[in-house]
Amino acid sequence: MLSGLLARLRLDPRLSSMVAALIVIAIVLNVLTDGLFLSAENLYNLSIQTCVIAVMACGMVYVIVARQIDLSVGSLLAFSGMAAAWVQTRAFPPDSTTGWIASIGVALLLGAAVGAVQGALVAKMRIPAFIVTLAGYLMFRGAAFLVSDGQTLAPLHPTYQALGGGVDGAIGVTASIVLGLLAAVWVVWHAWTGRRDQRRYGIEPAPIWVDALKSALMCAAIAGFIWTMCLAPDFTNVDAAGEPRGRGIGIPVLILLAIVVFMTFVAQRTRYGRYVFAYGGNPEAALLSGLPTTWLVWSLFILTGVLAAIASVITTARLGSGANSIGQLAELYVISAAVIGGTSFAGGTGSVPGAVLGALLIQTLDNGMVLLDVSSPMRQIFIGIVLIVSVWFDVVYQKKA
């Protein structure tokens, strides 16, 4: 009955089940923490914590869809983050207004260069990606330590720190409301143009009430998110009565949204995206049909390297410093987010929004267990169990599909 309703509403059963699971988990955690979990301040922190894993998971979806793997993203995050911190604290004066911009450029170039080298080893030298990136996992973690001989690099420029969502790291209430209204208008416009395009190509669209209900639910979700972010108090910004103003959407969330929109567009509307999914579905057929498979695999590792560098900027900006210990176990969380979000190790199947939901699910569990004072080893055990259950669900789903 439920599957029939989802089919009638034309909703993805996997994404719908993840949203339902997130709602149930949030309610349970809120009860167990006496209302602390669903407080506006905690949800703001949760949105920022999710961004780092979600940004890298967007690239990991492409890699796993193409039947590859990248185990080095966590170490690369640490390496590029330390390089960015070194540029700001050692190569430029502390009050330099250009040092933080140069540090971002260095991090992105470093991520792209490392991804290009690893991609060349996999695509041209035919060395398995598991071996190449496992070696990268060890090398880049060591390189991150050597950048400053294990010392923490601080302080970073205040403007740079805003990119991490901390002090002055949100866009405020007014800008958040305007952005939310634009997003709601886009949802309605997308539903209307979708129905028009379906008629143009001779496809009978779903009943009007289905699209109206889906648009209303999405607009309600956007309004709820904006309202919660605006309720999060900014204790460094008070009004005339001395009360803290609302923070609004964090800058890392905006960075993540831009990446999600871009990566989803590439996957669904470009030839490159179709090549990736075609290659993952059947590599031999893709090669015989003339697809540039070597270049394709190479470019995927450059993509994950750049996204790891972006995640390193968010991480170091949020911490206000560079430390070689950042990004530990991040690669496992990133792969877990992609798999939980529906990306199949068999290749050819996966979605960027699903990976973001997977990252949100993992960070929700981790955040809730921190509030419940669960020890770090127990948190890792529990998230490992969630990963196994997700893969089992994927196997069952693939058999029924």
Structure description:
This protein is an all-alpha fold and 401 residues long. It contains 16 helices and 2 strands. The chain has helices spanning 2-9, 13-32, 40-65, 73-91, 99-123, 129-148, 158-162, 173-200, 208-231, 251-269, 271-281, 283-288, 293-319, 330-340, 352-371, 376-400, and strands spanning 233-238, 244-246. A two-stranded antiparallel ribbon has the order 1-2. Helix 2 packs parallel to helix 15 (352-371) and helix 3 (40-65) packs across helix 15 (352-371). The longest helix is centred in the middle third of the chain and has 28 residues, at 173-200. The mean pLDDT is 91.
Question: How is this fold's topology laid out?
Answer:
Layout: H1 2-9, H2 13-32, H3 40-65, H4 73-91, H5 99-123, H6 129-148, H7 158-162, H8 173-200, H9 208-231, E1 233-238, E2 244-246, H10 251-269, H11 271-281, H12 283-288, H13 293-319, H14 330-340, H15 352-371, H16 376-400
Antiparallel strand pairs: 1-2
Give the number of DSSP strands. Answer: 2
**Taking all residues together, what is the mean pLDDT?**
91
Shape: globular
Helix-strand sequence: HHHHHHHHHEEHHHHHHH
N-to-C span = 17 Å
Strand content: under 5%
Lateral strand order in the biggest sheet: 1-2
Radius of gyration: 22 Å
- Biggest β-sheet strands, sense, barrel: 2 strands, antiparallel
Number of helices: 16
Tell me which oligomeric state these chains represent: single chain
Secondary structure class reads mainly alpha
Helical fraction equals over 70%
